[in-house]
Amino acid sequence: MIVLRGGATLSCKVQLQPGSGSSCQVTVRSRRTDSAQLRSAPADCPDWLRASHRKLDTKLSLPYRPYHTHDEAQPLTPGEVVQLDIELWPTSIVVPAGHRIALTVRGRDYEFAKSTGARLSNFKNELLGCGPFLHDDPRDRPAAVFGGKTTLHFGAGQEGFVLLPVIPKR
Q1: pLDDT (tens digit, 9 = 90+) per residue, 120-140?
Q2: CATH classification at residue 65
Q3: 53, 85, 118, 144: which one has the fewest Cβ atoms less than 10 Å from its Cβ?
Q4: Residue 150 burial by Cβ neighbours in a 10 Å radius (0-12, 13-18, 19+)
Q5: With pLDDT > 70 as the criterion, what percentage of the chain qualifies?
């Protein structure tokens, strides 16, 4: 059994193809070894970052909490590889023995299923993976800007990492 409690961070390199404005949505989940996902409420420690808002405040950032200034847009140039540091919402996950920790990085909202039937009375959206939070308004995410492909880069000179808040066993 592993217990995760607190904030987490993903640090990775991305590259855009033409027509990709890139927003990254990151989710950490617990999965059985047969890859079936445990149903949890709704997805564990998600977060989003629009890549053009990747600028960090180095004085306020901490290893487990990158602090983005959001004071200027830094548009991405197609073909250029850039660093993204993404804070994940604080969480409290108990990962049972025999389970794996799974990380999903997407350019759109995480969806557990196409339809769940789950709703909250005070939200219009169906709960598909990250609660009622959606980032699909065409005024904010026009397909001409966000419809392209974003590539994650790993390997020599482009190492990424996930920093997780593991509570040690007693």
Answers
A1: 666 666 666 565 666 666 776
A2: 2.60.120.260
A3: 144
A4: buried
A5: 64
Does residue 166 sit within a domain?
A: no
CB atoms within 10 A of CB 29: 23
d(CA 162, CA 65): 12
pLDDT at 56: 95
Nearest to 47 by CA among 4, 99, 103, 94: 103
pLDDT tens track for 39-75: 443 455 567 788 888 999 999 999 889 999 999 988 8
- Residue by residue, DSSP assigns 48-113 as EEEGGG--B-TTT-BTTB--B--SS--PPPTT-EEEEEEEEEEEEEEE-TTEEEEEEEESS---S-
What range defines the domain where residue 142 resides? 2-156
Q: Which residues pair with 32 in a beta bridge?
A: 99
Q: Report how many domains make up the chain.
A: 1
The verdict on residue 110 lying in a domain is: yes
111 vs 143: CA distance, rounded Å:
19
Decide: 7 and 106 in contact? Cβ < 8 Å. no
Determine, yes or no, domain membership for 121.
yes
